[in-house]
Design goal:
Elements (H helix, E strand, L loop, with lengths): L1 H19 L6 H20 L5 H20 L4 H22 L6 H35 L5 H12 L10 H17 L5 H20 L3 H18 L1 H24 L6
């Protein structure tokens, strides 16, 4: 029992490292994600919880990617880096898909906690972090050629929190929003905490100044209406089409200004 708790802890630790220290940007985070996810996956594999079809499918998939890296890739080093990240997420997916317990609620709690951390840091970054980062880059010993692109990005004041880019941040926030809904049927105190987390999420998402965040919210709302209020969807369809056209026109007019 203790060993299973430890393995489950490794899997959730991999999720925390993947969000707070994304492997695409932080080498130490990448190492932590790969180690935690690999150990969790092989522990489940040794307990025969992973079906053979998933294992053989993974072998075929990674064999194809390795062959592509060896014979066709123009940058073998970056391809191998991508393979290592895909391997970590493959292990995590296998662990949670084939867990003997229902991972839905623990995953939702994990995502809500991560969202609160990321959103809180995003708000801190907007009000205080950019000034500190600007001073740090300005007084750094790097060449001006290196400093200018970084200072230009800081000047936009588009928050990215713990993630690498504003686009990565709004993508995570959009994905995290349905997990809040999964925990909504709880007591009053939990709902208050969820409401505060959602408010922080929305403010941080808007501070990314990314058009994609608005599109993500629109897709989530449309999906929720389709699943729960299909009759209302047909009534709102003309308004939705108009919003899509206006949004597309707005995005095309602001080329380069929004990610």
């Amino acid at each position: 029992m203790k060993s299973r708790l430890a393995v489950t802890g490794l899997a959730f630790a991999a999720l925390f490292f993947a969000v707070l220290l994304p492997p695409e940007a932080y080498p130490d985070g990448k190492l932590a994600v790969i180690l935690c996810s690999t150990f969790a996956f092989f522990a489940s594999l040794s307990d025969r919880r992973i079906p053979p079809a998933y294992v053989y499918g993974g072998i075929a998939f990674f064999a194809f990617l390795i062959l592509h890296t060896v014979f066709f890739s123009v940058d073998a080093y970056r391809s191998l880096e991508l393979l290592s990240v895909l391997w970590a997420y493959y292990c995590l997916l296998g662990f949670f898909l084939h867990a003997e317990w229902d991972p839905a609620k623990p995953l939702a709690v994990c995502m809500v906690v991560l969202c609160a951390i990321v959103s809180g840091y995003g708000l801190y970054q907007y009000f205080w972090g950019f000034e500190q980062l600007y001073n740090y880059v300005t007084h750094a010993g790097s060449d001006q050629v290196v400093k200018v692109p970084i200072l230009e990005r800081i000047a936009t004041r588009r928050v990215f929190s713990t993630l690498a880019l504003p686009g990565t941040l709004w993508g995570f926030l959009t994905i995290a929003l349905p997990f809040h809904a999964a925990l909504w049927r709880s007591n009053l105190m939990v709902r208050i905490l969820l409401s505060a987390s959602v408010l922080m999420l929305l403010v941080t998402g808007l501070l990314t100044r990314s058009f994609g965040f608005l599109v993500g919210l629109f897709v989530l709302i449309a999906a929720w209406l389709f699943l729960h209020h299909r009759r209302l969807v047909w009534r709102l369809a003309p308004i939705a089409i108009l919003l899509v056209l206006v949004g597309g026109a707005f995005y095309s007019l602001r080329q380069g200004g929004i990610e």
